[in-house]
Amino acid sequence: MSIFSRLNDWVAKNISHKLLVAFFLVFFGTYLATALVVLTAVRSSVVGAEHDALEQMASFKLNSLNTHFDQLRTDLHAWSKLDVMNDLASGDVDQRVARALEDMKADYALKGDLYAFNAAGQLIASSDNRRRNTLLPAAWRPGKAITFVDKHASPLDGSPIAALSTPVYSSFAKDLQLGTLVVTYPWSAVRETLSEQAMLLRTGTPPVILESTLRGVGGESVIEALGRTKPGDVWLQLGPTRYLAHAVANGSGRLLADWEVVVFRSPTYLNHTLSVVAWELAALCAVITLPLIMVIRWLANRLTAPLRDLTGFVAGITGTGDLSQRLAPTSRDELGTLTTAFNHMAGRLDAAAQERERFVRELEFSAQELEKKVQARTRELTAANAEQARILAELQSAQSQLIQQEKLASLGQLVAGVAHELNNPIGFIYANFPHLEEYVRTLLDVLDGMRQLPMSDEARAELERRLEEADIDYLRGDLLKIIRSGQSGATRIKDIISSLRSFSRLDEAVEKNARLEDGLDDTLALLRHHLQKRIEVVKDYRLNTAILCHPGQLNQVFMNILYNAIQAIEGLGTVTVSTRREEGWAVVAIADSGCGIPAETLGRIFDPFFTTKKVGEGTGLGLSISYGIVQNHGGRIEVDSAPGKGTTFTIRLPIDGKPASQPGS
Amino acid sequence: MRSLFLLVCCLGLARFALADGLLVIANGKVPEAQISLEELMNIYRIRKVTWSNALAIVPVNREASSRERQQFSEMVFDRSTMELADYWNRLRFQGKIPPVVQNSDQSVVGFVRNIPGAIGYINDTSEHAGVKVLLRLE
Predict the structure, then answer these.
(1) Which of chain A's ends, N or C, has fewer CB atoms near its CB within 10 Å?
(2) E strand residue ranges, chain B
(3) Kind and range of the H or E element at A283?
(4) Is pLDDT above 50 for A206?
(5) What is the mean pLDDT of residues A441-454?
(6) How far apart are the first and last CA of chain B?
(7) CA atoms of A608 and A162, how far apart (whole Å)
(8) What ipTM does the predicted assembly reach?
(9) Is the pLDDT of residue B11 over 50?
(10) Res A608 pLDDT > 50
(11) Which whole number is the average pLDDT over A79-94?
């Protein structure tokens, strides 16, 4: 995490930090601006002051030089008027001139030397005891008055000097030149006067640099730069460096008329001054900053303390939800007003919260009530719906059952009618077969008797041939068989008709005492064709009591169950039909060894129109009708099935009629 | 003790030298061959300032403490050196130039020899080549 983002975090967390930073930034910005203004002012002031100082310094240096040389000129003039100079005429036999020169050099602390030449140009005396046979150098030859000899190499020893030369006139005759007095001024003294960063020029075109104490800068570039400067310029660009510079020239009429002093100030000095000021400002800033930060911090804390209290108070309320808390106002300013307002608001909120809670409680109560009502109403509606659906189903079922029963009743009447009509002819047939057998036997006996009778061989042969032709032996056996089978068939027809009659029982509407076993037998007889040889019927009749019932309806029940049992058995199998008595109930159990009923359909087998058979084979009403019939009898029908092992239907009927009469059913 | 001895010797020498006379010498360009004592007085009183050929007279004196000056003062003006020095000093305030002072006979001779119109006095025993003697003072 960078410092900036940390600072950002620190500032974002706290108002007093924000205030602290804001105050500090304001202070710092103000201070910076002030410091910049101060620095700028200081800079311009320093530049101005420095330029003034340079001006003064240049003037001072030039004046100093002027003073030196003016003084020297005055002195030289005076010295040339001394009486002792008359001794030049005598060749300074007494060394008075020499002593005087030495004394003057010592007394006036001359940096250079004095040389006195006589009128013939011979060196008469000097302050440095130079030998006498030196002749006056041409450069030093004076005019009528004092002559200034600019920088030149000393003709005597070669060192750079400036010199003043004056003719010496006798004190007694003004026109009589006794000789020449020369005072030299060593150039090193000029250089010393110039001191650092200054330049001495001889004006003219081009100017000549007489002396320069400016290090590292070529004279030509200075001359060129000076040539570029305009009046009022204070800066002089010398190579890469900009110098503060000022030049002062002597006007005409002065001894050093063409001398010009230029003084330079390198910018490092200015920068040093500025940097000192800048450091002082920075130090002042640092000195002010610490107590100021403490003051600002104290102020920020003091300003934000009520806010903190308020924040803590609000956080407390938010955390605990306790709106009963109040905060004492600490001041009469906006924060105090805010605190009061907040207290007021907290009070209002408290009241509102209580009101809301009351409302919520009431609402909850109302909602619960409503919920209860809705549930009750829903239950009622559901029940009513279920009832309606059940009633509708029952109606549909009843309607279907009525139709089916009507159909079956019609069929039963038809079958009963047919059986009744067939009963008489079949009775004839059945009744005639014993007679037929008897008559056949008689005929056969007669025939046998006839064959025993004596007769001609021919006749006998003819008889025997005819008998042979008729295959009488076969006929005899077969005839009896045919009669037997006919008799058997007639018996079966008679039984079937009897069963049909008893099955259809044209007494439906009337309750009768009937044995259930008879109904079972009749039904089985009607189903014999379906049983054939593959299904063994095991009967276990233990009830053998007549009970009050509608036999025809019960037969229909048995028919349905047995037919289903037969259809459930594929290949060989067993159908067990048993009756027994259990307390007040007559129990009929019909068990088969068939495929069984899957558990998922077991609950629906009594529903109307539920079938697993193909379309056209079953109506789906058989067991439904059976259920209704058994219920009408006040009994119940139960089913118990194990898929793959078989199904057992158990019918319980009250022995002594309906326990609860269901009129009209 | 040693300096006292030297002083005694000098005094003795001075006493011996008092007996000598003075020679008044002049530059070779001075037209006069000799001058009178009065003329000499006038010259040293700066009352006579030119020679007969209008050449400016440059009188040369010796220093005040010299025996020659003392001798000259007494011999020519019959005055003391101090009195004459006063006179010459007063001349300065009148815009006149008192005689040039030279400190030795040699320098007087050298000066007179080199300066046209110069006149001086020296001990009669001193060398005085290149100048002409205008007067002998005994």
Answers:
(1) N
(2) 22-26, 58-62, 100-102, 118-123, 132-137
(3) helix A267-320
(4) yes
(5) 86
(6) 36
(7) 154
(8) 0.78
(9) no
(10) yes
(11) 84
pTM: 0.50
Q: List CB contacts (< 8 A) between A93 and chain B.
A: 104, 106-107, 110
Q: Do A89 and B115 touch (CB under 8 A)?
A: yes
Q: Picking from A15-24, A427-436, A627-636, A653-662, which range would have the lowest pLDDT averaged per residue?
A: A653-662
Given a cut of 90, is residue A364 above it in pLDDT?
yes
Provide the greatest CA pair distance for chain B. Answer: 56
**Which three-class secondary structure state does DSSP give residue A243?**
strand
Decide if A242 contacts A236 (C-beta within 8 A): yes
Distances (CA, A) of A156 to A118, A130, A407, B5: 17, 9, 176, 46
Q: Which of A90, A96, A117, A169 to mutate to test the interface with B (most CBs of B within 10 A)?
A: A90
Per residue in A487-521, pLDDT tens?
A: 888 887 877 777 777 666 555 567 788 888 888 98
- B109: tokens are 């001779």
- Which chain A residues have a beta carbon less than 8 Å from that of B109? 90
State the angle between helix axes of A622-632 and A334-452 in degrees (0 to 180), rounded to the nearest 10: 90
pLDDT above 60 (res A325):
yes
- The residue with tokens 């205030």 is A19
Which pair of tokens denotes residue A509? 């509407």
Nearest Cα to A166, choosing from A116, A125, A130, A210? A116
- C-alpha to C-alpha distance for B27 and B132, rounded to whole angstroms: 6
Report the pLDDT averaged over residues A96-105.
Answer: 89
Nearest CA in chain B to A93: B107
Half-sphere exposure of A94 (CA within 13 A, CB side): 23
